[in-house]
Amino acid sequence: MRQVQDGDNSWVTVVIPAYNAATIIGKAIQSAVNQTYELVEVIVVDDASTDGTIEVVTNFAGNNPHVRVLRRTQNSGGVGAPRNWGIAQAAGRWVMFLDADDELPPRACERLVASALETGSDITAGKAVRVNRDTGESEAWAPEVYAMARTVPGLEEFPLFLSDPIAAAKLYSVAFLRSGGVWFPEGVFYEDTYFSTVAGSLANGITVITEPVYRWMWESEGASITGRTGELRSIRDRVAVHRATDQFLLERGLWALKVRKDSKFLAHDLRLYMRALAEGDAAFQQGFAETVSAYLFSISDEAFELCGPVDRVRAYFLMYQEIEAALTTLDYAQRKSVYSSYLVEDDGRVYWSGDHLHLPDAHRMLDVTELGLAAAPVTQVPLFAQLNGWRVEDTRLAYDGELVNRFGRIEAEDSVRLSLAVRNRHTKHDVVVPVPDVSVDERFVTFEGSADLGELLGDDFSDSTVWNVSLIVEWNRSRSRSALNVRDIELDGLVFTVDGEEFEGYRTVSGNLAFRSAVANRRTFESEQNDPDAPWMWWREHIHPPIPQLTHRFELAVVVPCYNVAKYLDDCLGSIAAQRGFAATQVILVDDGATDETPRMLDHFARFYANVTVVHQQNGGLGNARNNGLAQVTAPYVTFLDSDDILGPDALALMLQAARRDNTELVVGDLVNFPDRPYGPWKQYFGDGDRVIDDFAQTPDLIFSGSACNKLFSTQLLRRLGLRFGEGVHFEDSWVTLPAMLRAQGISLVDAPVYYYRGRPDGSSIMDSLWSKPANYRDHLRLNHFLLNFTAAERDDIRHMFHRYVARTYKGFLCNARNVMGRSQLAEMFADIHRHYAQIPDDVLLEFATNPAQQLDHYAAKSGNFELFCDPKPALEAAPLRLEIDDEGFYRTFSGGVLETATARVADPNIVVESVRARDGMLVVEGCMAFPGMDISGPLHNRLEFVHQTKDHKIVAPLQQVYRRDLWNARNNKDLYAGFYAEIPAARLAEGGLRVGDFRLRVHRVDGSRERNVVMKARLPLHRLKGHGRLGKYRYMLTIGAQDALHLRMVGRGLGARVKHTLWRTAREIRIIKMRNPGWRMRFAYWLMFPLLNSREIWLIGERSDTAQDNSYHFFKWMRTHRKRRKIYYVIDGNSADYAKVAKYGRVIKLGSFKHRMYLLHATKLIGSYDSESYLVPEGYRKVLFLHRFGELLKYQRVFLQHGIIYNDVTTGVDQRITSYDMIVTTGRQEREFLGHEAGYGNRAVLAGLPRFDALQRERLARPRILLMPTWRQWIVTASYKKSAGPAKTAFTQSEYFRFYRALLADPRLAAALERHGVDLEFFPHYEIRPHLRHFRTDSPAIHVADPTSRNVQQAMKECSLMVTDYSSVFFDVAYMGIPLVYVPFDEEDFYGRHYKRGYFNLADDGFGPVCRTVDDAVDEIIRAIGRGFTVESPYRERVADFFGHRDGDNCLRVYEEIDALGDLPAAELAPSEAPLPLEPQQARVVREVPGQSPAPERWTGAA
User: Fold this and answer.
1) What is the pLDDT of residue 758?
2) Which of 193, 1124, 1390, 1446 is 20 to 30 A distant from 73 in Cα terms?
3) Same domain, 355 and 481
4) C-alpha span between 300 and 723 (Å, rounded)
5) Using CA atoms, how far apart are residues 1103 and 1112, in angstroms rounded to an integer?
6) What is d(CA 651, CA 672) in angstroms, rounded to the nearest whole number?
7) Each residue of 1029-1070: pLDDT tens digit?
8) pTM for this one?
9) Is residue 1418 part of a domain?
């Protein structure tokens, strides 16, 4: 971040337009005022409000010189005019816009300004988070835009920015807006669309940061502009703004941006109105259709083509004002691909509606073939079910309706059974009754029937239970379920009673029928609080009659401070007047300057009761009001009641009785939140009856009951101690209650609810949180210092209680301080924070600081290390990697503090063993570790040892840390040296006896004075290596138990010991089989076949379970041709298309057969192009389950042939310690070095070449062909193998991928060159892109779009004369054949930020062809390649030669020789041939900066 220079204008102006926002704007202003960035001015533009908005705002402005108020005299009809005035009046260098009902996170301005200073961009945008006020749930807005940080020249270079048209969550240069004439349109809604488009188009730089900078608060029933889709003004304004935006873009010649904007209107904006359109009346529907239709006819075909099929259909129907047809897309969206439209199939194409094919261009616009509906069974895409009519008599429901007969597949003579199913959403239990009357025609399956509603609901339900109603369809040996749609039917009156309880039918959010309790539906948070039958409403029938004059001496007093609580005041006062003994109660009501009806209501209440006194005062806050009320008390006892809460029945009498009975000075009763929710650890003391506490220390958690409202105090006690409530501060109660409880002569506990505390429904706002206001941090710190000083001379147990109180209650403040306050604010407070924590013992702090981040904050506070507290990251990076050890475990220390503390704890690490293998009488153990909260970025200063611990002995060996790039990638650039390696001689292990033992990590303190052992656990790869093994002259048994517990048992060398061990193993196997443990049959068969198969050499090979086309196939074919005597067997699904292709070579085993199972368990080698155990295990087993059950029987070596050349950093998936491969085949010299050094293979990475490369022979065509073959992007296409991943983050047609390749294919220079030179271009996208092929169209006869499902990729590569690709690794195949290349990595920053990590191969420095990042450059290079006859130029020719280790056609031979060289040892005896190089603590890590990602790790210089 560039530092702010003296004299710079670095102020931010936050503009808040406001109209009738009195109840909400305070939170918005407070969030802007409370920014950690201190140079913020707030301009509130009041748009002629008619409520109390101006008073609320003026109150803030009067107290804060950085808050200004601008008042409009006439309402503008939108936020455009107020925002424009704010821009004009802004004194800041930058401006932000904040709506009156939204909030800024505390660090919003700080983050945005830091980026703006660094980049100088005119616009800096951060993430907005949408927060549901009702539930508190949140989701990111436009997440695809903010997936990674970036800076771009403008909107043209980043059109995806159009996906976030809101003006909020962005920092704008004021000078840019004014000089560019960038203003909001006035008097309309949706002004942001125009403003954001104009600003983005004119900006000199747009920067995107990924941090959240805006909280967009919304309510499901809110009245915000975005929620007013049911008003015609909404769509009319939206269209008007779009028309104005169109005019701007066209005048600027920004046609491509207009197309992108229009496609968003079609796909996003229109969809927002569908539910309102469905619920609107005829006038609304007609007005909507007329407005939208006229605009849609102005939108180009290009924009329609960028839409998905359903979005295109919706827009098309609206264009022709076909409302009902358009609403069928709503049915599709709400019911997860269920179709209510009249789908038709014609000539292999599927159309959305056969009723509308007469409309212009309907065959193109309604074509939805790509949705795959023609082949979709009803089990995957259920039929649409519609309820047409209903009637209820008593509990009998009569109904009729229809199912859409998709494509007319169900014929009249078919057997169709329908059942009405009602599912209890809580229990998931169905009640199913048959539908008696069913008839079928070409378009519909109609049904009619009746059912008893009591029977349908069942017996197991509560007030909150909901039942979903659906139809079960049984047809053509299939069964599907269709939700019963009620979008077009009125449900008012669908009410029935079962067992005295009323139920109703209602329409769900998705428009389907469901049942619920009628009472539960009417219950809201507020209605539940006001439920007349609720226990807190006990007082209604017990109000004391008027008291004209005093006739009793006061026995106790109630002090009630009141401020603007008219809504709840009757409940509060009623609960006082209904108390037993009310006439002897002194009631003091303090009006704290209320501005609502509160003063009048208090005076009115006092006129009825002579024992009530009303004190009117200027607003002084809760503490001041209580103190002034307390000064009026003459009664011997006093309690306090907040004016929105309720006293419990007989609360005053019960507490007074306890005080007198027990002769105590303080009484504590139970406090209940309503509606009920837990209220703290002190509640444990209630539930066992009344009791007396003679010593406060007897109930240590009672200290957390800090409220004064559930307590009765001796008035003399309070005055004797001189206690007063804190004034002008929060947490005012504890200034009185805690000292009073400590010094009281006895405390009585009344086990009855004496106080009902009213909860508030809106708890989602951060401004309602204690942690959001800096003043709260200071107030609570003052309180805690007071309590610590007050108890400084008390007994140890008392001081321990108060230490626990201050530690627990301030933890949230301490750990949130950095997020709420800037550095200067923190600096002002830190001395007091340190003084506070310096008094608290470590064990107390650690009781409440339970994770590493919290413990680090407490360490910084207690040690007095301000830099660590203010910004921990640099301190953590600079700290030595040293662990301290005490009786409790590990902890760290940091330089810079003034007080020693052990609060920076490091929990016991997670130590996992990944490999246990033997080598020359040496047991080699490999694995990894993770110390919570500690980045193992280098060698630890502590000495580490491996321990094999049995009951009687501990065998110790050195343990060395190992470089692990895979862990660094997987753990977010942490733990680069978190691997470990240990060697233990067999003789040393034998010294520990022959008992079973576990593995442990021993960590020594740096000075050698202490040590600590941590038990190791097993990781999945180890399951393949468990079981019986040989270790030199010894044998051992490695087992893995529950919770991955790892045990090793050494077996003696003598004959007796071996016989004993054999008998033990035999008994164990018999027990497993006899107990019928899972997998016992396969295990039993294994032992039956053991004598026949165990001594055989069996090589199993395969690819995916149904393919024979990659390296495995080519190697198998070579083996069956050139090494026929080798027992190699190909495993493949017998029903697959490739079975016959491989079967002709013989020795093919059908997947899942008995032979497959037995040969797999006895195999000596398992060879594959993919993860063999993921594809070649028997049906019904996943890899994890297979290895868990049978790992100890396995002995095969794993060989990975790969399916392509690795050049990106995929170590997280391919590292040897994770995959447990015994050999990996590489093709390039750099590839071998990378996998050997960076992925842990060492010499197990062999430079033999991919077997399929032997078949790579170039096939020249008479007409040269260019192959354009890009790879895919995981953020625009959800992988076909990740069905549950949900939709892609970025719409395909809105992606840079589509934008680039569509432009390249449509480039006129390219088309002309192809036709002029007689060259074809084949566009062959990745397999995952196939659903979007229709979007790529070209008018040139020389350009063809291939279908990846039918076109063979190997053949396409052989036939091409030039390959153009972005990052697809098949470019190695093409280069291998001597074919030239052109690279087009147009989105390199995105690709390596979101899809892959960079590896060893840089396209610009190491690639085999020129690198082009624009369409024009790519076309230039393609034309150059054509002109030179598709020859490979220098230096690319030399780079190819240097990269490939072999290009002689003998890859299969070399692979065979390398596999054969592994020998016949079981995998457990193939330990690494040498130990990794040691690490030296004094060496520093060397990193290489890579654009677009975190620094990539390189090896330690000393390990080179």
Assistant:
1) 85
2) 193
3) no
4) 77
5) 6
6) 12
7) 999 889 999 999 989 999 999 988 888 888 888 888 888 889
8) 0.82
9) yes
